Amino acid sequence: MDTAAFNRLIDVLRSATPRSEIILEEVPPPQKLATYSFAFTADVTNGLIGDAEDDVATGRFVLLHEPGGQDTWEGEFRCVTFVSADVDAAMQEDPLLPEVGWNWLLTSLEEFGCSYNAPSGTVTRVSSASFGKLSPRNNESEIEIRASWTPVIAQGDEVAQVLLSHVMAWCNLIAEISFLPPIADGVSSISKPRK
């Protein structure tokens, strides 16, 4: 794949339309990890207005492409992600939270029909306590998922559509980790304009 072909592929990824609570923004991708790369960030807010508005989850999705592939990838493309979301104290203390977080990722990929190889990652629980002048703040707990996987692209598959399904699976992961309620069948989500 040359630069022009990768740019055409990226144009398809830019058409991703997640549910309205998720704001996608194209950002500069990391350099030197692969010949070609592309990146999105995602933010999910609590839906409140003004000073009460706060992010409940954030994420970053990076698509890497190395013609000829890399040995550890088992393919020419690699999806890399980081997502972070607030959780309540009881959930943060649940010993199964890391397994649940990893399962959210794999389930999202499966729900969108994504085949993949070489998945790897970590799920981290983060707990913060405030002291001194910050002591009026509540203690905070978060879950962080760092992961990467190689999309499987079969002979005859439309590469851009396969990769778009992986982006949409990632958007679903953001919705899951944000505890957004499911959208009822037959109801459409209205997307906000991308920045």
Descriptive terms for the model:
alpha+beta; 6-stranded antiparallel β-sheet; about 200 residues; 4 helices; globular
Topology:
Elements: H1 3-13, E1 22-27, E2 36-45, E3 55-70, E4 75-86, H2 89-93, H3 97-111, E5 116-128, E6 140-151, H4 159-177
Antiparallel strand pairs: 1-2, 2-3, 3-4, 4-6, 5-6
Helix pairs in contact: 1-4, 3-4
Task: Write a brief caption for the model.
InterPro entries: DUF3000. The protein has helices spanning 3-13, 89-93, 97-111, 159-177, and strands spanning 22-27, 36-45, 55-70, 75-86, 116-128, 140-151.
Please state the average pLDDT score: 85
Q: What is the total number of structural domains?
A: 1
The tally of helices reads 4
Listing every helix as H and every strand as E from the N terminus to the C terminus, the arrangement reads HEEEEHHEEH
How many angstroms does the end-to-end distance come to?
A: 28 Å
Basic shape: globular
Instruction: Briefly note the structural class of the backbone.
Output: alpha+beta
Low-confidence runs of at least 5 consecutive residues: 187-195
- Compute the CA-based radius of gyration: 18 Å
Instruction: Tell me what portion of residues adopts beta-strand conformation.
Output: 35-45%
Percent in helix: 25-40%
Largest sheet: 6 strands, antiparallel
InterPro entries: DUF3000 (IPR021555)
Pfam families: DUF3000 (PF11452)
